[in-house]
Write a structure and sequence with these properties.
Blueprint (H helix, E strand, L loop, with lengths): L1 H23 L7 H6 L6 H12 L2 H14 L5 H16 L1 H7 L4 H9 L1 H34 L3 H50 L2 H7 L12 H16 L2 H7 L5 H32 L8 H6 L4 H39 L5 H25 L6 H21 L6 H20 L8 H23 L13
Keywords: Membrane, Transmembrane, Transmembrane helix, Transport
Pfam families: SSF
Membrane topology: Multi-pass membrane protein
Length: 468
């Protein structure tokens, strides 16, 4: 009972700190640009922390440990794939995103492919972000419920309301600052558990003796799965609203590039440490449900360590949710509200709408998570859909005359239908839906391009050509 109170008090104190940060920075959210972008430029290292924290939610934290419980160290590829994605993002598109001057993924694509692409992209991106939010609420609520001994539905509501409130109050600046704190606690949590777990087993030598040899193979999970993680992870990073939004808050393209490198540097150790936690749990607690690998170890340590782990897991939930909320609200503002309901550009109306949209983007997934916890499997589908957009992003920056505007719209719609259908069919023939998502725009844009060349002219001119 004493241990439970220590953990509860630590979590409550952590939430109070988050609320305090949002209150202190609330002045930055008095304009629509301040609410969406933070009202200032941020150092690259802070954006690196933000990006890292945004991608390490409960599914990455608990899921990596769960996978490692079954297959060993190769489960770390789940997170290392994200690190590789950020390296590629920094090398090839970060500077270009910043130079483009657009803070939405739909606006970036529309600058080359036209307004039809803007609408299609915005709809798909908003749906993908909210699907992930539902999954994070559901998994996070279940995790907090089991660890804190509280009702699952209550845990979902509390976490969802807190995340929504601090984003509504503080906007993008509160998301940046609180995610730095989340990132530090996440790294500390998995690091402490990994060290304590290895010590309890008796060292790395004893851990190796306790587990099958294949658990220490870098490809134990299978190269097919590893490449699917890479495709989905890289695609999600190249074409996710909150990534674009984050890198446009730094001062110049060079800092945008460095932010991605900083994030990658933090993701690699996190993935390895989370996998080690799953492996030591397999050695210490054989026979438990693999999903309980990290939570079981977390409650079997000193209460202060459990408290740090709990705060880290709360941070894993809130960090991702905050980014999803602000990203969805910004898309709704830029692509639906302003063009149709605020053409005069009244900033006061924008601020009101952005706060309402932020609240809605935070609350709607709560209601769905209470009744639809089975959507957890859809999170990977959401990554795959963004991978389809990533193909168009690369073409936009490096081959803007390849294909056509109409081909881009068809690619997005076809990828949505084909990838979702393939996923619902259970990934036939062992082909992951991520491959289908990438293949659709590649094939369609290639066919459109070749048909245009046969006719002597493109089907329709692209809006403009991007420069480096």
């Amino acid at each position: 009972m004493t241990s439970a109170w220590v953990v509860l008090l630590a979590v409550v104190a952590y939430m109070v700190v988050l609320a305090g940060i949002s209150y202190v920075v609330r002045r930055s959210s008095r304009t629509s640009e301040g609410l969406a972008n933070g009202g200032r430029v941020f150092p690259a290292v802070l954006i690196g922390f933000l990006l890292m924290s945004e991608f390490i939610g409960t599914s990455a934290t608990l899921g990596t440990a769960q996978e490692a419980y079954d297959v060993g160290i190769s489960a770390a590829w789940n997170v290392v794939a994200l690190a590789i994605g950020f390296v590629l993002f920094s090398l090839f598109v970060a500077r270009r995103y910043k130079a483009l001057g657009e803070n939405t993924i739909s606006g970036a694509l529309a600058s080359t492919y036209g307004e039809g692409v803007r609408t299609a992209t915005s709809v798909i991106m908003t749906c993908a972000l909210l699907i992930v939010a539902v999954a994070i609420y559901a998994s996070g609520g279940a995790m907090l419920s089991s660890l804190l001994g509280i009702d699952r539905d209550l845990a979902i509501v509390v976490v969802g309301v807190l995340a929504t409130v601090y984003v509504v109050i503080g906007g993008m600046r509160s998301v940046v600052y609180t995610n730095v704190l989340h990132a530090v606690l996440k790294l500390a949590a998995v690091g402490l558990l990994a060290v304590i777990g290895v010590t309890r087993v008796g060292g790395l030598g004893e851990l190796r003796a306790a587990l099958p040899a294949e658990n220490f193979s870098v490809d134990g999970v299978g190269w097919g799965q590893i490449f699917a993680w890479l495709i989905a992870g890289v695609g999600a990073i190249f074409a996710t609203q909150y990534v674009v939004q984050a890198v446009t808050t730094v001062a110049d393209p060079g800092r945008a590039q460095r932010a991605g490198f900083y994030s990658a540097l933090m993701l690699v150790p996190f993935g390895i440490l989370a996998a080690v936690v799953g492996m030591v749990a397999a050695a210490l607690y054989p026979g438990i449900d693999s999903l309980d690998a990290l939570p079981t170890l977390a409650v079997d340590v000193h209460p202060l360590v459990t408290a740090i782990v709990m705060c880290g897991l709360v941070g894993a939930i809130l960090g991702s949710i905050a980014a999803l909320i602000i990203g969805s609200a910004t898309l709704l503002l830029k692509d639906f509200y302003r063009p149709f309901f605020n053409r005069d550009g009244d900033d006061r109306k924008d601020v009101v709408f952005l706060r309402v949209a932020t609240f809605g983007a935070g609350v709607v997934p709560i209601a769905l998570a209470l009744f639809a916890s089975d959507v957890l499997a859809v999170t990977f589908l959401a990554k795959s859909l963004r991978a389809a957009l990533a193909v168009l992003i690369v073409l936009m920056f490096y081959r803007p005359t390849y294909g056509s505007s109409r081909g881009a719209v068809v690619s997005i719609l076809a990828a949505l239908v084909a990838t979702t259908g393939w996923f619902l069919a259970g990934d036939p023939f062992g082909i992951d839906n991520a491959y289908v998502a990438v293949a659709c725009p590649l094939v369609i844009m290639t066919v459109v391009h070749l048909l245009g060349k046969r006719r002597g002219t493109p089907q329709e001119p692209l809006v403009k050509e991007q420069t480096a």
